[in-house]
């Protein structure tokens, strides 16, 4: 049940779910087509078609919806180096005074390889999480009035616009607050592809649930009365991360049947046969609640 947005020829038997990402087939295909596909073409063809690689993309949406998953998975599909991951607040807090230097270092490997190998250089991916923390409108004093936010944005801009075109670089910015991102960063030639990653719908949640219980299924550690479609119906507004949290909470209920708690906690000898049941998920649903989307509904 793949839903390729591009006309790419999907290899027989391939399913997006096998990559551990549920409910984001359309977004995945679209990001791949717009930001990554050109990276697979040989340099000769790139020149012939006059293609300019996309240098930056922005993934935005609520927390825990799979933004980081997508970025990492597409990187590994393209055989890129493991991405460099950096976090907005970390840049501001930890490296006050040397944040610019820190950003410069982030790009250094890509710059070096580009100089040495030109078009033959491999792809370097930088994942910039919580980009909003450094990219509040310049001049607004992000970074606690130190002006650090401004200089980080300026440094990013100068790296993206650099005189020496960094053709081997892709910057993936992530945020829960697109409205907070400095517009200068979102222009063409910078973080120009914007993709919203929203909370999964019911069928997305069923897919995510199946992904996070696939190991249990394989190991025969889940009862047949657990139904992904039923759980998906009961988890409105859950993010992917919250679906994962639900599965872990249910496992803890299953384990709890095997504990004997006295002055010492011990475990029943039959603990090998621990199986998660529907009732465990019902208990877990009492505990794990979605963070987002609920308030709006209560207002309706
Ligand atoms: P944040 O904005 O908080 O950085 P994010 O959108 O980058 O969040 P991830 O880090 O990708 O979220 O997701 C956290 C975890 O939640 C993942 O490691 C995975 O276990 C689970 N998860 C989230 N979305 C999905 C999904 N669509 N399919 C499968 N698992 C998911």
Low-confidence stretches: 1-5, 142-146
Number of strands: 7
Say which molecules are bound, naming each kind only once.
adenosine-5'-triphosphate
- Count of runs of 4 or more consecutive helical residues: 12
Order of helices and strands: HHEHEHHEHHEEHHHEEHH
Distance between the termini: 34 Å
Q: What is the helix content?
A: 40-55%
What best-fitting shape do the alpha-carbon axes yield?
Answer: elongated
Radius of gyration in whole Å, from Cα? 23 Å
Oligomer: single chain
Order of neighbouring strands in the sheet with most strands: 2-3-4-1-5
Summary of the model, kept short:
The chain has helices at residues 25-36, 43-49, 67-77, 88-94, 99-117, 132-135, 148-161, 202-218, 228-233, 240-256, 278-287, 294-299; strands at 56-60, 84-87, 124-129, 169-175, 191-196, 259-261, 265-267. The chain has 300 residues and is of the alpha/beta class.
List keywords for this structure.
single chain; 300 residues; alpha/beta; 12 helices; binds adenosine-5'-triphosphate; Vesicular-fusion protein SEC18
Give your account of this protein's structure.
The chain is α/β, with parallel strands linked by helices. The protein is built from twelve helices and seven strands. It is elongated. Bound molecules: adenosine-5'-triphosphate (ATP). Adenosine-5'-triphosphate binds at residues 20-24, 63-69, 129, 174, 176, 208, 211, 240-241, 244.
Write the layout of secondary structure elements.
Blueprint (H helix, E strand, L loop, with lengths): L24 H12 L6 H7 L6 E5 L6 H11 L6 E4 H7 L4 H19 L6 E6 L2 H4 L12 H14 L7 E7 L15 E6 L5 H17 L9 H6 L6 H17 L2 E3 L3 E3 L10 H10 L6 H6 L1
Parallel strand pairs: 1-4, 1-5, 2-3, 3-4
Antiparallel strand pairs: 6-7
Helix pairs in contact: 5-7, 8-10, 10-11
The structure holds adenosine-5'-triphosphate.
The site of adenosine-5'-triphosphate has 20 residues, from helix 3, helix 8 and helix 10.
Family: Belongs to the AAA ATPase family.
Subcellular location: Cytoplasm
Protein name: Vesicular-fusion protein SEC18
């Amino acid at each position: 049940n793949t839903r390729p947005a591009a006309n790419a020829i999907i290899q027989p038997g391939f399913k997006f779910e096998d990559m551990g990402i549920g409910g984001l087939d359309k977004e995945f295909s679209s990001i791949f087509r717009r930001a990554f596909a050109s990276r697979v073409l040989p340099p000769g063809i790139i020149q012939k078609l006059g293609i300019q690689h996309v240098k930056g993309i922005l993934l935005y949406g609520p927390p825990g919806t799979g933004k980081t998953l997508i970025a990492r998975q597409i990187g590994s599909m393209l055989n890129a180096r493991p991405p460099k991951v950096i976090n907005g607040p970390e840049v501001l807090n930890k490296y006050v005074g040397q944040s610019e230097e820190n950003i410069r270092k982030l790009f250094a490997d890509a710059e070096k390889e580009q100089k040495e190998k030109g078009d033959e250089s491999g792809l370097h991916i930088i994942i910039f999480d919580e980009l909003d923390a450094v990219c509040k409108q310049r001049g607004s004093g992000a970074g606690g009035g130190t002006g650090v936010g401004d200089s980080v944005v300026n440094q990013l801009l100068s790296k993206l616009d650099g005189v020496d075109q960094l053709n081997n670089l892709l910057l993936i910015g992530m945020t829960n607050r697109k409205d907070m991102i400095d517009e200068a960063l979102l222009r063409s030639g910078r973080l120009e592809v914007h993709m919203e990653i929203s909370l999964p719908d019911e069928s997305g949640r069923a897919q995510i649930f199946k992904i996070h219980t696939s190991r249990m299924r394989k190991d025969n550690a889940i009862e047949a009365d657990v139904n992904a479609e039923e759980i998906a119906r009961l988890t409105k507004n859950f993010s992917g991360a919250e679906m994962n949290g639900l599965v872990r909470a249910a496992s803890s209920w299953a384990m709890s049947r095997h504990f004997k708690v006295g002055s010492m906690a011990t475990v029943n000898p039959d603990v090998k046969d621990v199986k998660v049941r529907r009732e465990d998920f019902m208990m877990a649903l009492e505990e794990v609640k979605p963070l987002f989307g609920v308030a709006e509904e209560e207002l309706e």
